[in-house]
Amino acid sequence: MICLLAxxxxxxEASVPPLSVGPPMILVSGRAMALITGDRGRRFExxxxxxxxxxxxTGERYSAILETxxxxxxxxxxxxxxxxxxxxxxEGPFRSIAQLSSSFCIGETSMIFVGTWRFGVDSPRxxxxxxxxxxxEDDTRQEVxxxxxxxxxxxxxxxxxxxxxxxxxxxxxxxxxxPYPRYPRYFQRHLW
Length: 192
Description:
Number of strands: 10
Radius of gyration: 20 Å
Distance between the termini: 69 Å
Mean pLDDT: 80
Order of helices and strands: HEEEEEEEEHEE
Number of helices: 2
Low-confidence stretches: 1-16
Strand content: over 45%
Structural class: mainly beta
């Protein structure tokens, strides 16, 4: 009997958000996608690899790594003011990073949908830019909500509220980052 009680006490549901002693954690979800906006592209389609968020009061940084097939992201953040600081976009072996400055504030709600983020990547050239557009789409919101309800059944009765970061549209420079593919220096696109 004591062995059975010990086994029952050790089992914990894996899909439950992490318990913390500090401030309550809020589920932040959204969808991010990248596409080429110029007249020519590379052999590989652009993909958003990860996003970085910074808590303004504490300076802590959080990253959301996106899956290749599904472009949604779900992460638990403490309440406060956040700034979206960086995004990494890959095109096959080529990787680029852009600095962003959109911000949003998480309050008392337990689940937030931050919308669909579109990263319009310019054609491969020197001085490459990325156009960021953040919008609220009802179809995407419903898909993300179904995914959350299946993945986290304990949040089934919570309401998913929508919050779009501000500014919702911005344009910034996209920088190539290492590791650069191992091509002879003659064939590399940029040398800096």
